[in-house]
Design goal:
Shape: globular
Structural class: alpha/beta
Helix content: 25-40%
Radius of gyration: 13 Å
Distance between the termini: 25 Å
Strand content: 25-35%
Length: about 110
């Protein structure tokens, strides 16, 4: 799995490979360190081969932290089948954000079907 932060104008955080429980600690550290350094973070998923619910929960947690700290977290429009299918199977797709989504930026609202 490759993780990298591109310090371009969009501050893209790129993920490749397997995004599962075996890498949860590494993924959490990478996401939180990136969010701590930047006010805007754009997640890009390239060649993602496997995703499990632990990664979805981690994304949700990072988004909640971003909202709380008035930072911006977005997900690229291209969503690999492995990610999209896990989001759908786990029931993460929403019509509205959760009660903590005060800025109306829920990452699970659009583009998953």
């Amino acid at each position: 799995m490759e993780l990298r932060l591109e310090e371009s104008t969009d501050k893209a955080l790129r993920f490749e490979g397997s995004l599962t429980i075996e890498r949860a600690a590494e993924l959490k550290m990478f996401l939180m360190e990136s969010l701590n350094r930047l006010d805007r973070l754009h997640l890009v998923f390239e060649n993602v081969t496997e995703v499990d619910i632990s990664f979805l929960q981690l994304l949700c947690s990072v988004h909640r932290t971003a909202v709380k700290e008035k930072k911006n977290l977005t997900i690229d429009g291209h969503r690999p089948d492995s990610l999209r299918q896990t989001v759908l199977a786990a029931g993460f797709v929403r019509q509205e954000g959760c009660i903590l989504d005060v800025r109306q930026t829920c990452i699970w609202k659009e583009g998953w079907r």
